[in-house]
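Collaboration report, partner site 2.

Our partner group contributed sequences for two proteins of shared interest, and the home lab folded both. The records are reproduced in the order in which they were received, starting with the first partner submission.
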Amino acid sequence: MADNMQEEEGILRKELSEYGRRSFERGLICGTGGNLSARIPGTDKVLVTPTGISLGDVRPNENILVSLDGEVLDSPMDLIPSKETSFHLRAYRLRPDINAVAHLHPPYATAYANKGIALPLVTVSARANLKHVPTIECALPGSEELCELVTKGLGDYPEARTLLMKEHGILALGKDLKTAFYLADLVEDTAKVAFIAANIKF
């Protein structure tokens, strides 16, 4: 059993780094912003990306193991978990079906978030896969207030798989990292199409 858990942890460490790199290369994040996490299925343990390192550069052994209560269980490189770990952990406690959380800062989606409106679902794919992408209010990154706003958003929109975060970015929730990443990518593509469509003049 312990061997299986270690194997699962090793796989998730690699996936976190892989999808962090993809997020950076897709322009869903820049600099050292954003954070990803993945719950080890069937446990109360979560791997989260470290603070202060670009998601494009995080290596598998730099991802940090924490408990659902926020206790650091293993940080091989003595790194610090993302300052926004608290709302990742809150999402896992509220949504037992969720095993991955992606918090990213894609520009078009963030621009719509700043308007304080739900994302316009302007494509068939968006309507089929996203259903509804509401906006929640902003607070300082890493603050308890932001964690409470995310908690309220998850409670107010229990069916939402993605949320826009005013002045901040987006939150995507998936059954695994691949799902969370592609949801985030679809949100940004939808926002881009919505912006272009709104600015086409006849």
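Second partner submission, folded after the first:
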Amino acid sequence: MLDALRKFFQSSMLPAEDAPPQTRDRDLRLAACALLLELAHADDEFTDDERAHLEGAVRRHFGLDHHQADDLLHHAELERRGAPDLWQFTNLIREHYSLGQKMVLAEVMWGLVYSDGELSAREDYLMRKVSKLLDLDMPYLSEARKRAESVLDDEAPRID
């Protein structure tokens, strides 16, 4: 575990132009997944619905198969547990993600916190904290929230 952490810090501390693209991409994926996992654990209950939403989002957004997504989430969980705070993850994303990518990440995060049917105060607080650390202004966060709610409404079973 310490070797994985050491590798993460060494590679993520390289200047962007010096980091090999595959290393930078993996670090960004780890950082995004670590943030998602932090949100999933925010209310002290990582439900099956949250797990399914998270795994599906990781496979979809990163183009991974089931095994690759599991591996990424496993490493991200190790990183999350070993991190003293969220800054190392949010800083990496803030520096390398475009506004559009941050919006997509925020939408995935909102979808994750709503996937269990409840928004806890801790989840709401953490969403606002992470968005601030990502330099994602409130109007953008609100838009991502509305889109996530809309998707969840579309997926909800309908009674005709």
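Feedback sent to the partner group on the second submission included the following. Residues 2-154 form a domain with the TerB-like fold (CATH 1.10.3680.10). DSSP finds eight helices and no strands in the chain.
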